[in-house]
Amino acid sequence: MENEYYILERFNNIPFEIKRLKLFKTKDNRIFSVDIKVKKEKKEKKEKMTIDHKKITGCYVLSISGNEKKASKWLGGGQNYKGILTEINDDNIKEYYHDKYKIIEIIDIWKRWHLNDLQPNCKHQKSFDCNVSNFEELADKQTKKCPQGYKYGSAWLVEPLPVDIIQQLLKLTN
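Structure (tokenized):
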């Protein structure tokens, strides 16, 4: 099995990378993979607000996207974890490229930390699907939960990516 691997930079001896990782092949010969990218935001001078209401610059961002390939053609890219999760079924899998539980662990990190710099809520609030008819009502309810008065969804907040999550991803993908 070959994985594409590019070292972008080193920070505290942790490589930040773009990595394509093959996950599994289905019985109809579709190959599912993920692209995992951890990068330092380029605009280090631009201050951002964290979910803890603190100002920071130069945060690290995790981005993971799913891909599907059949024969030599890409059928789709940019998939979310739900599309890949629906395919993880032992009756449907021809070959796992990694331990099934390792794949589930990668997906769990994906669910929790993907685009950690685009959070609509602070730590006092709970995120919800913005494609609902009662968005304003739900946003007002969440806004009232913040003692600092942050209006839910009024800005993209950052949840800093913990170094141990990066280390866990490196361990899972090597």
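The chain has two domains: 4-48+58-119+159-173, 120-155. Confidence is low (pLDDT under 50) at residues 1-13.
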